[in-house]
């Protein structure tokens, strides 16, 4: 750890002044610029005893790894909104962002950046994550948690969201509840090819005593076209015994399911209630308007930037993982009972 004398030499002030600033001496009167210069020098040299409330953000170059799979549709809109918020919050934290779409290119340029933030759900091989960790001590993944022992993560709490949806639907008198989703991955040391929302639905349905036999459809991408196909299949499988309600993994799929229902003359919410996840702008303009759990993309981005900034300034060695709650935005496709 740096000494008071080394910080004084870096900042250009006396050791006595530096000591009094770092110890927050109330009797010391100095210009704010002097105080910030001393604090910056202390952080740059790795001095660990700066009071947390005194810490300031020093300029950093960071990388953004865009790990989203382009679909030229509603899913792209989700990640574009997330990326816009991330750039804004990074600027507020005095971080300069350079974007990469290939993890190998990022690793080749490791010397240019203090850390990275990754957005997008595409899975990583373990060997790639190990190479990434060799290149960067600090990184934050948004939306996924592929290496809990190597990097930080910020995610929407999708498992709790699914439970909230089931609880709310059941409280409103719905017992036969279906699930429609796409292909995803449960990540970590034991990667498993199942989307966390589908996993949570199966798990909680059993615990809540729901019969979901033949009511879970999960395959293909998170797109409107796939939603339309899965909606048609649900109708074919249950033409004479539609479920009371359906939970949709994401709004792009929900839009397609609504189209399939409309083509078959099935009216939402009269014949079946529908709840989705994401609360993208399109949810306001479907017919009927879509009740959807809001994932606050701005809060996700802000939390990721703050998490990386804190890790870089404190040089902590313990990884952190944050889950953000969601909130149901009620529209016409499902209105909970009071």
Automatic annotation (TrEMBL):
Pfam families named among the record's database cross-references: LacI, Peripla_BP_3
Keyword Transcription regulation: yes
Transmembrane segments: none
Keywords (A to Z) from UniProt: DNA-binding, Transcription, Transcription regulation
InterPro entries from the UniProt entry: HTH_LacI, LacI/GalR-like_sensor, Lambda_DNA-bd_dom_sf, Peripla_BP_I
Family annotation (PROSITE patterns): HTH_LACI_2 (PS50932)
Every HTH lacI-type domain range: 2-47
Gene Ontology MF: a single term: DNA-binding transcription factor activity
Name this protein carries in UniProt: LacI family transcription regulator
Origin species: Bifidobacterium adolescentis
Species classification: Bacteria, Bacillati, Actinomycetota, Actinomycetes, Bifidobacteriales
């Amino acid at each position: 750890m740096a000494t008071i004398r080394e910080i004084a030499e870096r900042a250009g002030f006396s050791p006595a002044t530096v000591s009094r600033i770092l110890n927050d001496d109330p009797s010391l009167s100095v210009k704010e610029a002097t105080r910030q210069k001393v604090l910056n020098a202390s952080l740059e040299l790795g001095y660990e005893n700066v009071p947390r409330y005194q810490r300031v953000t020093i300029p950093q170059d960071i990388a953004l790894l865009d790990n989203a799979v382009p679909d030229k549709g509603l899913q792209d809109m989700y990640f574009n909104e997330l990326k816009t918020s991330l750039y804004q919050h990074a600027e507020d934290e005095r971080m300069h962002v350079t974007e990469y779409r290939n993890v190998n290119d990022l690793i080749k340029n490791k010397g240019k950046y203090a850390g990275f933030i990754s957005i997008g759900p595409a899975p990583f091989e373990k060997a790639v994550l190990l190479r990434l960790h060799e290149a960067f001590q600090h990184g934050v993944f948004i939306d996924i948690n592929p290496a809990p022992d190597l990097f930080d993560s910020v995610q929407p709490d999708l498992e709790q969201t699914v439970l909230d949806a089931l609880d709310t639907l059941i409280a409103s008198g719905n017992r036969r509840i279906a699930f429609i989703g796409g292909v995803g991955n449960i990540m970590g040391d034991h990667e498993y090819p199942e989307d966390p929302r589908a996993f949570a639905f199966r798990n909680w349905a059993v615990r809540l005593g729901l019969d979901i036999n033949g009511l879970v459809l999960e395959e293909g991408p998170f797109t409107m076209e796939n939603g339309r196909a899965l909606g048609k299949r649900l109708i074919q499988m249950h033409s004479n015994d539609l479920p009371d309600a359906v939970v949709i993994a994401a709004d792009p799929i929900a839009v397609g399911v609504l189209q399939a229902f409309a083509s078959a003359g099935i009216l939402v919410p009269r014949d079946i209630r529908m709840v989705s996840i994401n609360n993208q702008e399109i949810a306001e303009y479907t017919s009927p308007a879509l009740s959807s759990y809001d994932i606050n993309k701005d809060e996700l981005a802000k939390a990721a930037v703050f998490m990386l900034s804190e890790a870089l300034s404190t040089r902590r060695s313990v990884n952190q993982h944050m889950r953000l709650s969601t909130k149901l935005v009620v529209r016409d496709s499902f209105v909970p009972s009071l």
